[in-house]
Every structure is written in C-alpha cells, then in structure tokens.
Amino acid sequence: MTSKVQNRLVEKFVSEVDSYLQDLNQDLREDILREVRENLDARAADSFDDLTLPDSLEYANDLRQAAGLEPVAIQKGFLKKFLAQVQIRIQTNRFALAMAKVLAPLKPLFWLAVAISTFGFIQLYVLGDSPYIGVPSNLEQWLLWIAIVITVIWIGAAKFGPLMKRIRTIGLFVTFIPMAIMFQGITEGVVSTVDELVNGNPALRTTGLIYNGLPVTNIFPYDAEGNLLENVRLVDDMGRPLNSSAEDLVTPVVVDLEDGNTVITGYLRPSRGEDGSEIWNVYPLKSASNPVGFGVTAVDPVE
Amino acid sequence: METTQLLKGALDLAILAVLNSADRYGYEIAKHLRDSGLEEIGDASVYGTLRRLESSGALKSYFQESEDGPNRKYYSLTRDGSEELASAESTWNHFCKTINNLLADANRTKKGA
C-alpha cells in the first residue's frame, strides 16, 4: 500500500471516528482526533506490513466508554439513519474535504456577511425601514453595526458544545432571511446600474428609435429609385423588429417645427394582422387624420 | 473467562503501573501493555482510559517533539496518580489473594471429594 493511499484511508477513518464524536465539544473532539492520528502514525511507523484499521464505530465506542463517555448514539428511524450516513459520506468524501479546505479561509467573510445580515434583520423588524438594508444610516446604527460584527465573528469563531451549536445553526437560518432580501436588492441594484450605464437614465429614456435625441415616430423606406415602399417590416442584424416610438404615442403626435411652432400631425395607427391584432412595425405607419406638412397618406389602415 | 472483561476493571491500574516507571505516549503505553501479555488490549481503550485518568487528575500530559512526525502527547503520573496506584495495587493484591484463596479452597474440596 502506498503512503498516499494509506494517508487517505487514515483520513477517512479519522473522519468516520469524528462523526461518532459530534456530541462532544470541539476542543475535546480535536484533542481526541489529534491523538487518534498520532496513534495511527505510530502504528504505521511501527508496522512492517500494511496498516490495518479497525472498525471506526467499534473504535469510537471503545474510546468513549473507556473515557467514561456515553456510547455512540445509534440513530433510530430511517430518516435519522439516512442523514447520519449522508453526514459520514460528506465528511469522508475527498471532494468535500478539498472544498472545505478551499473555503476555510473565507470563513471570516461568511461570518461578516452573517453580521451584516443580522443588522439588516434588526433594521427590517426593529429599527423600521431603511434606504439600504444592512448599511447603517447614522452614528447609532454604526455603533450597533460594529457591536454586531464583533459579536457575530466571536460566535463564529467560538468552539461550542452540541446545544450551542444547534442554537447557532438556528440563528444562521434566521439571518438568512434578510440576507436573501439583501442579495435580491443587491442583484437588482447591480442590474439597474449596469442598465443605466449602458442605456442611460431610465427616467429620461424613450422606447423605440431615436434620431438626434428625439424619438422617431414613423419610418419611410424607399427603394434605390426613390420610390416609397409600403408595408415594410424592418429588423436589425439580430432579428429584432425596429420599432418607432409611435407605439407609445397613440395619443396625438406632437411635432416641434423648425420655426418654433408645435403641430399635431395626426394619430398614427398600426397595421392589423389577419387576426385583427395590432402590428406596429409595418412602415410607414398610417395616420388617422390629415397630417400637416409631412406628406403622410391620410388613410386609416384600420378602416 | 474473557480477558477483555477482566481488563475493563484493571486497565486503570495497568496504565498507572506502566507510567510509574517512565513517562510515555499513548501508543507506547498500549504497545507496552500488549508486549507484557495483554494482547487483547485495544488502542482506543487505552486512549479513552488515559483521557479519563487525566480528567480525574491522576495523570498529566505534555507535548514532546518526535523524530518520526508531529509532536507526541506524553503522560506522566501526578501525585494523586501515584497515591491512586498505591491504593489500587493494594486493592488488587487483596482481590487476587481472595480469588486465589477461593480457587485453592475449591481445588482442595475437589481433591478431598
């Protein structure tokens, strides 16, 4: 047996023993497991043949009984047994162990997130509404925030017994509620910020085509000979229909003339499909009434 | 009679006795016990007993560098441990003497009949 394989088996054995010591406090557990490793190392160094590992449950039971502890609690019931098995599988899985190793340095960040979330929880349900959940808005809130961060990080780093561990887990689940709300808020905020950067301020944005900053209400396509084409559907290179802003302007179309006057050009109307539905990107859009000075055919396509 | 059953009651005494001569680490103690004839002793039982004796104050532990790997946890007798050893030795001797006497009586009765 290679030492690599042997090390893996030892780690698996130690993890299994650890799963039978979960009710003990972390310090005691770590001390016991350190000694189990020491024992196996010494046995491996002493043994000329391959190291044979005992049954982990029997080993844990012998150790516990000799130490004056309760024997391993055998889980009763299908679900509890199943969960105990899953726990052992995860704890002895190489990938899970590797992931735990990678994620271990991020533990303080996780507890910091929990602290912010806890503060968010208090903001939501005690302090009342706040413009930004999780972010203090005055000196008192900042002091509270700092106190919560210190407390939560201490709780995260503390080595608790089984009862306190259970309480800590329940607390974690409770703080996940504002964390989820905050995460949703942050995601929406990021999306809208990116959208604003790319497409401009939504309040000032006009849907449809823009020309020199002004909405295009109608489009007049011509062929190479300069003949006006009718009933043309225009799409861009990605297959998106080119829509003028006329859809938003079912109300009277107001146009500012060069001489400073404003005129109502008429009411633009969409074409109708066979089923009677409105089709807004068939150009030129027709006007329901006589336009003023734009040469738009005054024919209501609906009629 | 199974040796393991007998050992359960006598393991404390055996470990205290081993540590009376020198400080040792867990595996060394277990090996010493096995080499002395207690082949059935399990490492886990030794480590569990060491932990219990340490908690009760009969033993104390310290770490010492090892040439073969990580630091080892050595155990040594405390004053309480020495007193417990003396007391347990006396109890054990009395117990052995009583059992031996009973066995001798039984043998004599058997031969007489």
Overview of this protein structure:
The complex is a heterodimer of chains A (303) and B (113). With 303 residues, chain A is mainly alpha-helical. Chain A is built from eight helices and ten strands. In chain A, strands 1-2 form a two-stranded antiparallel sheet. In chain A, strands 3-9 form a two-stranded antiparallel sheet. In chain A, α1 packs antiparallel against α4 and α6 crosses α7 (139-157). Residues 290-303 of chain A have low confidence and may be disordered. Chain B is α+β, with helices and mostly antiparallel strands and 113 residues long. Chain B has a single domain (3-112), classed as Winged helix-like DNA-binding domain superfamily/Winged helix DNA-binding domain (Arc Repressor Mutant, subunit A, Orthogonal Bundle), CATH 1.10.10. Chain B is built from four helices and three strands; from the N terminus they run αβααββα. Chain B has helices at 3-21, 26-35, 43-56, 79-112; strands spanning 24-25, 59-64, 72-77. In chain B, β2 (59-64) and β3 form a beta hairpin. At the A-B interface, α2 and α3 of A face α2 and α3 of B.
List the keywords.
heterodimer, A: 303 residues, mainly alpha, two-stranded antiparallel ribbon, 8 helices, elongated, B: 113 residues, alpha+beta, Arc Repressor Mutant, subunit A, three-stranded antiparallel β-sheet, 4 helices
Q: How many structural domains in the coordinates of chain B?
A: 1
* Proportion in helices of chain B: 55-70%
The count of DSSP E runs of length 2 or more, i.e. the number of strands of chain B, is 3
Residue runs with pLDDT of under 50 for 5 or more positions of chain B? none
How would you name the CATH homologous superfamily of chain B? Winged helix-like DNA-binding domain superfamily/Winged helix DNA-binding domain
